[in-house]
Amino acid sequence: MSLVVMKFGGTSVADLNCMRNAARRVKAEIDAGNRAVVAVSAMAGVTNKLIGYVSELSDLHGGCEADSIISSGEQISSGLLALALHEIDVPARSWLAWQVPIETDGAHGKARIKNIDPSNLLTCLDGGEVPIVAGFQGIDPRGRLTTLGRGGSDTSAVALAAALKADQCDIYTDVDGVYTSDPRIVTRAQKLEKVTYEEMLEMASLGARVLQTRSVELAMNQAVRLQVRSSFEDSAGTFVVDEDEIVEQQVVSGITYSRDEAKITLVGVHDRPGAAAAVFGPLANANINVDMIVQSTASDGNSTDITFTVLKTDFEGALAVIKAFGDDLTFDDILTDQDVVKVSVIGVGMRSYAGVAQKMFETLAEKGINIQVISTSEIKISVLIAEEYTELALRALHAAYQLDAP
Ligand code: ADP
Ligand code: ASP
Ligand code: MG
């Protein structure tokens, strides 16, 4: 008998028919002789609506009251799914984060899970009931509700699987697996049978929202067997696995995009040792993450342009930090651009093949797409381009790396 954690995302519990469908999936797992613990998201659109209420009423984002409001969608779906299970004669019980408990730090809006005591859920299972846990929620050391960041119920599910020492964690969603690129944009994207934790981590952090980045990080560290699969079709999904489980490794296995970043250029920075530290130190102190960076020095060697990207949500904050620079750093002008997209190609095979970057640059050049900033790591290359070219760039790169479905 296996213990399986099943997570249903927003579109999988979007209405009562979807709830009934999810309930049937849970029943099938139990009829197959397994034990199931379920994590649920809010019904599709509910979290956005709740966030809308908060931001219309107050400038205070990410606070303790905001979390109490935006975590409520998951309370509704855990109760409804438990009722849907009762209707098909499966005993089930809803669990909110504080009842489990799922303990987090106090970083409202982006809390990290510190500990899950599995004993209440195990008692529930032993009593013959399926626990339906509200995802996305936690409880901080003061006993207040927290939320885990957008898409956070993936992380709830993986953390539950780790705490319960589950045999598998299945993420049920509206696509039947992880694809070589977002199938809603690249119609010729192909489903991956397996993807490595490392690649999935890069894909998630570079924009493939099918799994929350932290959920992959946690699955990798805790060796949780993770599968992404469809709520609506029976086919096998995509398994996230160790590198040595993949026999034939593609050079590039995924292409992602993210519209979450904005570009800032400081023009004519007076160049001297320590200029970069004077820019990025205060941003780091203000808790603003800088992602891509490029610095180009003028031919006279006296001034330099520094271009970098920050999350759009940090954009205003970054400008405020820059405007507060004192005499430490002088520059001529600030240029900004929010209509940009970061496109990335990812693959562990890149470690052993040269020419991947070259192909990316050539392909974009052939389509007349200008590259504004480049950043690389061992298994990915990212470029920043104008947002209007998102679809064109994704499709052209997908074809160039021979990822298109036949
Ligand atoms: P859920 O509500 O189930 O958590 P999400 O909307 O968070 O679902 O994630 C699923 C979506 O992720 C898909 O509908 C798809 O458009 C998007 N997506 C982006 N990149 C990929 C990818 N490489 N493979 C599969 N889906 C992707
Ligand atoms: N309901 C939350 C969100 O929309 C969490 C999740 O769906 O995973 O971000
Ligand atoms: Mg999601």
Beta-strand residue percentage: 25-35%
| CATH-level-2 architecture of the domain at 3-174 | 3-Layer(aba) Sandwich
Estimated structural class: alpha/beta
Side-by-side strand order of the widest sheet: 3-6-2-1-9-11-12-10
End-to-end separation: 40 Å
How many E strands? 20
Descriptive report:
The chain has 406 residues and is an alpha/beta fold. It has twelve helices and 20 strands. Strand 19 and strand 20 form a beta hairpin. The longest helix has 16 residues. Helix content is 32%, strand content 27%. It starts with a strand and ends in a 6-residue tail after the last helix. The strands form five sheets. It has an eight-stranded mixed sheet with strand order 3-6-2-1-9-11-12-10, with helices on both faces. A four-stranded antiparallel sheet has the order 13-18-20-19, sandwiched between helices. It has a four-stranded antiparallel sheet with strand order 15-16-14-17, covered by helices on one side. It has a domain of 172 residues: Acetylglutamate kinase-like (Carbamate kinase, 3-Layer(aba) Sandwich). Bound molecules: adenosine-5'-diphosphate, aspartic acid and magnesium ion. Aspartic acid binds next to helix 6.
Give me some keywords for this one.
binds adenosine-5'-diphosphate; binds aspartic acid; Carbamate kinase; 27% strand; 12 helices; binds magnesium ion; 406 residues; eight-stranded mixed β-sheet; 32% helix; alpha/beta; single chain
